[in-house]
User: What shape does this take?
Amino acid sequence: MPTAEEMIHQLVEGQEAVVRTAREIFPTTDAASDEPTADLLTQRMQTHEKTAWMLCAMLA
Assistant: This one.
């Protein structure tokens, strides 16, 4: 059974994985001039980066 701190680390890793995936996809949407998808990816990245930051603050 993981500790609370380990669970928060896992949540941070998950949030960061989503951001990495969105960043990998972003050049494809840019190349396709798909602005709605690029905007959606930008919003998702901001949300997940903020969540990861808040979770990291809980560990400090």
The mean pLDDT is 96. The chain has two helices and no strands.
